[in-house]
Design a protein that fits this description.
The chain is of the alpha+beta class and 81 residues long. The chain is 23% helix and 17% strand. It has a domain of 47 residues: Pemi-like Protein 1, Chain: D.
Length: 81
Amino acid sequence: MSIATLLPDGKIELPEEIRHFLHLQVGSQLSFTITQDQVVVQAVQLPVQSLKGMLKRPDAKTVSIEEMNEAIIQGALGTQE
C-alpha cells in the first residue's frame, strides 16, 4: 500500500511508485472519481511515447492510409475485395 501526504497548501505528494505506475511527469493531470465507498484516481493523459509498441505484433502487416480508407469504405458498404 502506498500513502500520499496532504501538504498545508492542499497539494498531495504522491509516492514514487504511484508516479511511475501512472507514467506521471511534471504537469501530468489526474482525474478523481468518487464512488460509493472509494475515490478512483486515474492519469488523464499519458505521454505519447509511453504508448509506443503497445499494440505491435511481429506478424502485423503495415498498411497505407489509402488501404485503411478503402477497408473502411468496404466495411461500411458491407462488401469485401
